[in-house]
Amino acid sequence: MAGLREIKSRIKSIEDTKKITSAMYMISSTKMKKARETLEETEPYFYMLQSTVERILRHIPSDMEHIYFGHPDVSQRKIGLLVITDDKGLAGSYNHNILRMAQNFLDQKENQVELFVVGELGRHYFATRRIPIQENFQYTVQNPTFNRARWISEILLERYRSGEINELHVLYTRMENGMQSVAEDEKVLPLERFSFAEVPVDVYHEDFLLLPSAEKAIDTIVPNAITGFIYGTLVQSYCAAQGARMMAMESATGNADDLLRELKIMYNRARQAEITQEITEVSSGAKAQRSRRKARKMGRNRKSNAP
């Protein structure tokens, strides 16, 4: 059994760690509340943009060609991968799930993959494996704003329009509910065209007029929609990261309580064993003293009785 000093040292260490995990839980809880408010304000705009793009795609001419519908004569998939991770760890499997999805893309040797990374954990993961990163968007994870989302989307769209990439995917974490989040792979470009044949005949076909032309409408709405989508994924990921960290810190605090309970039982047992040992030693010493006194007394009696 470990000594009392060692057990006391472990108890103090775990108590100090518990203070840290409890503080981090409170910080993440506060950030989570603020992030959810931002998410609730963002989602209506985010979903309206998606709905508007789908409506436009249902009404464009079926023979219209556009860069956002795909590059002509594509011989190889050149995938641009926007990977959204966090700047910090201690968030359970949050970063691991996204990085595993990104690694699956990289393991497909037939495709050419260019990485665009948001978050220090993602940058560190690819840097340690000497995987080249095309762009590292710093200072974006902890404070997602629409301006930063526009900056990211402009870089990605420029790469897409120039033909450096012909497919764009966003890997992010979607907040499922207050306790659960899901890693998502969303294909952003090229757009999937909807045809009138997919719309049931008994559904009302709205009148839709695109001015000054369908091409101009696509040129205007798609970049804004992608910017809005990226902003939504940044907010979703930030909210999911705080939720994952909050749950991880809650679990760590619970584990610390369990360890402290076991260590205190061990300490009490060790202390009881030490007290028992001390009592035994005192009793043995007292018994030895009585035996010596008795022996001396008997010796004196023999001398006094001697002729």
Explain what this protein looks like in three dimensions.
This protein has 307 residues and is an alpha/beta fold. Helices cover 61% and strands 11% of the residues. The chain contains five helices and five strands; from the N terminus they run αβαβαβαββα. It has a five-stranded mixed beta sheet with strand order 3-2-1-4-5, sandwiched between helices. Strand 4 and strand 5 form a beta hairpin. It is rod-shaped, with a radius of gyration of 34 Å. The two termini are 60 Å apart. Residues 195-204 have low confidence and may be disordered.
Key attributes of the depicted protein:
about 300 residues, alpha/beta
Series of H and E elements: HEHEHEHEEH
Distance between the termini: 60 Å
Query: Biggest β-sheet, characterized?
Result: 5 strands, mixed
- Helical coverage, percent range: 55-70%
* pLDDT averaged residue by residue: 77
- Quaternary organisation: single chain
- Ranges where pLDDT stays below 50 over 5 or more residues in a row are 195-204
Which strand order spans the largest sheet, edge to edge or round the barrel? Answer: 3-2-1-4-5
Number of strand segments? 5
Structural class, from secondary structure content?
Answer: alpha/beta
How many helices? The count is: 5
Radius of gyration: 34 Å
Which outline best applies?
rod-shaped
- Portion in strands: 5-15%
